[in-house]
């Protein structure tokens, strides 16, 4: 086996595959939607996020800073290849204020919008067998914006090539106020295999431009890993079934580097059923212009410093 995959992913074939899966957790999780996997997986992601952003903790805990910020700043996240909105509802919305969800497949994106609207209306029954709760939509303290499109076409800062489906929950004073604002967290889970190496690097470059420059903004990649080749060389395998690529740890790292991204933290997701690929979370920041920024995560900061940064962008600039 060599590193070069025998084929590149075909966008239409990938969409066709997902179009024939049920629009529920089982469908997006390859039949693992009704067991322990979704709960363990999203718990792992939330704990991982809290380790990066202790100030997002909603309950008293060792993570939560003692001093609350005086001015609440909204935290924005992007969830790409979002399926029926599982990561948005179970991982991101419990912690952040606003999520933009991108998904190309019609049945999935409509199901995500239906679930979000049902939650906003106070009903968690959507007709699907599982009931998802989307925190903060009922009452309008949080929002979800649902977009339809592929990662190949999507530019997070200029989303005009995607189709707007709905915005549910909190509405800014002027509807277009947060387009172009950028993101604190860009979450990419179990979908980047649908991009060729070239398209993936280009997507990462567009993501970097969409990270909020004066905040501790990061990209999270949570994906399956195949093993590296025995001589510690990267490996990428093409999967005919859904026209996607599975990459080894080193294959991911080569691409992060090509895109100018620095690994801030990496962690294997524990507790998943046996027989599945290893799943790893990588946190990525800008490696050149924002090097000191990512160093903060690696060296650790006092909680008070976190609060000051969220409250006071000038202090943040001074620290850079
Ligand atoms: C394994 S599911 C994961 C869904 C979701 N991230 C989750 O963890 O629940 C893969 C998702 O990638 C989406 N996808 C396929 N091709 C894509 C593309 N070209 N651009 C963006 N997403 C794509 C599929 O429609 C599907 O929703």
From TrEMBL:
<dbReference type="InterPro" id="IPR029063">
    <property type="entry name" value="SAM-dependent_MTases_sf"/>
</dbReference>
<keyword id="KW-0808">Transferase</keyword>
<protein>
    <recommendedName>
        <fullName>Alpha N-terminal protein methyltransferase 1</fullName>
        <ecNumber>2.1.1.244</ecNumber>
    </recommendedName>
</protein>
<comment type="similarity">
    <text>Belongs to the methyltransferase superfamily. NTM1 family.</text>
</comment>
<dbReference type="GO" id="GO:0005737">
    <property type="term" value="C:cytoplasm"/>
</dbReference>
<dbReference type="GO" id="GO:0032259">
    <property type="term" value="P:methylation"/>
</dbReference>
<dbReference type="GO" id="GO:0071885">
    <property type="term" value="F:N-terminal protein N-methyltransferase activity"/>
</dbReference>
<keyword id="KW-0489">Methyltransferase</keyword>
<keyword id="KW-0949">S-adenosyl-L-methionine</keyword>
<dbReference type="Pfam" id="PF05891">
    <property type="entry name" value="Methyltransf_PK"/>
</dbReference>
<dbReference type="InterPro" id="IPR008576">
    <property type="entry name" value="MeTrfase_NTM1"/>
</dbReference>
